[in-house]
Amino acid sequence: MTQAATTQQLGVSCIAYLHDRFRQAAQIPPLADLLRARAATLSLGHPGHHGSLIDEEPVDRVVLVTPSACRGCGTGLEADVDEAFAAWRAVSGAV
Questions:
Q1: What is the CB-side half-sphere exposure of residue 17 using CA atoms within 13 A?
Q2: Measured in whole angstroms, how far is the alpha carbon of residue 43 from the centre of its chain?
Q3: Of 6, 12, 5, which is closest to residue 28 (Cα–Cα)?
Q4: For residue 77, what pLDDT is reported?
Q5: Which residues contact 70 (CB under 8 A, 6 or more apart)?
Q6: How many angstroms separate the CA atoms of 15 and 4, rounded?
Q7: Helix, coil or strand: residue 20
Q8: Cα–Cα distance between 95 and 58 in angstroms, integer?
Q9: CA neighbours closer than 13 Å in the CB half-sphere of residue 51
Q10: For the whole model, what pTM was predicted?
């Protein structure tokens, strides 16, 4: 997007913005600041899911599920289950 198009979308005169920059008057905020302010007013993305987690006590086992092939290309995936489980235990802090 050009500077002219950006200033127009932000409701700022491109000529006034350029004069402000050349004169170093700083009466008009930098375009980056105007863009951040505009983005803050928009609803971007999806709302987060804030479900509750279950307590660790009722968990009696962990089932490691690994795909046998890539969904995209169909290439077989050889999973080292012991290595994957060891990595999970290291990350989760499980014994």
A1: 16
A2: 14
A3: 12
A4: 78
A5: 76, 77
A6: 9
A7: helix
A8: 16
A9: 4
A10: 0.44
Distance CA 38, CA 7 (A): 12
Q: For residue 35, which phi and psi values (nearest 5 degrees)?
A: -65, -40
Residue type, 91: V
How much is the pLDDT for 22?
A: 92
CA gap 83, 86 in Å, rounded: 5
Amino acid identity, position 78 = E
Pick from 80, 58, 56, 76: which is nearest to 68 by CA? 76
CA distances to 78, 82, 85, 88, 92 from 68, rounded to whole Å, are 7, 15, 16, 19, 24
Domain ranges of the chain: 3-41, 59-95
Give the mean pLDDT of 62-84: 78
